[in-house]
Design goal:
The protein is an alpha/beta fold and 240 residues long. The chain has a single domain, classed as Rossmann fold (3-Layer(aba) Sandwich), CATH 3.40.50.10320. It is built from 8 helices and 7 strands. A 7-stranded mixed sheet has the order 3-2-1-4-5-7-6, sandwiched between helices. The longest helix has 16 residues. The chain is globular and about 50 Å long. The two termini are 12 Å apart.
């Protein structure tokens, strides 16, 4: 059984690129913040390979960071962090990336984390971008066993004073085998606002709202929700 939100006070969400969390979980995040939970976003890259026009590449990291901060604000997330030194399209689950995620886990001390699935989803290959898989793999390795192990990356404890921390529960986005669905009908407007904030990534869509409603309706139907409802899907892993 998933943790009750009453047993959670802090949630850390990790993804490869700006907009990943908003496409996959903005409605859920909006519900969490509305309930008073503290939500932190951690982005592994600034998405410098993204975009659909002739925006100079050197401008894209700044643009996408600003878009992500605006999108997060739309769903009530105030704590938005970016890792430095990782390139869009070049992400791998290295020990450096794992250590940097462990650092943030020990700083935030979340009971729950939301991450990208490290499993390729052959039915939704677009959701299994290699960077997504790398961010998911690095995150789950950081969660177990590194973040809870005082002997993993000892410099975090010895030099930075970051005590080990056990994350109790992980929610996987875009997993091939979802087992938990969140009704986001009441927060859909905030999800739409968040994705509209990612202008460099979404402004080329003729009808973004219709696309998102179609996805949400399909997921709600899979969850057995009544007609007209919208949902997001996750797989929940209890980490002990």
């Amino acid at each position: 059984m998933p943790l009750s939100d009453s047993d959670v006070s802090r949630i850390l969400c990790v993804a490869a690129h700006p907009d990943d969390l908003d496409f996959g979980a903005a409605g859920t995040s909006a519900g969490w913040t509305a309930s008073g939970l503290a939500v932190t976003y951690l982005l592994c890259t600034r998405g410098d390979q993204g975009g659909f026009d002739d925006t100079p590449r050197e401008e894209m990291p700044r643009i996408r960071e600003a878009e992500q901060r605006a999108a997060a604000a739309a769903v009530g997330v105030e704590d938005v962090r970016f890792l430095d030194g990782y390139r869009d399209g070049w992400l791998d689950p290295t020990h450096e990336l794992q250590r940097d995620i462990v650092r943030v886990i020990r700083q935030v001390r979340p009971e729950r984390m939301l991450i990208q699935s490290p499993e390729r989803n052959w039915a939704r290959i677009g959701a299994s971008h290699p960077d997504h898989l790398a961010a998911g793999e690095a995150s789950i390795r950081a969660i177990y066993p590194a973040a809870r192990n005082p002997f993993a990356y000892p410099e975090l404890l010895d030099d930075e004073g970051l005590e080990p921390w056990t994350v109790k529960e992980v929610w996987l986005m875009a997993d091939p085998s979802p087992d938990h669905f969140v009704d986001i009908t009441d927060t859909f407007g905030r999800k739409l606002d968040a994705l509209n904030a990612h202008k460099s990534q979404t402004s080329h869509h003729d009808d973004l709202e219709a696309m998102l409603r179609s996805w949400g309706s399909y997921t709600a139907e899979a969850a057995g929700l009544p007609e007209g409802r919208l949902a997001e899907a996750f797989r929940i892993v209890t980490t002990g």
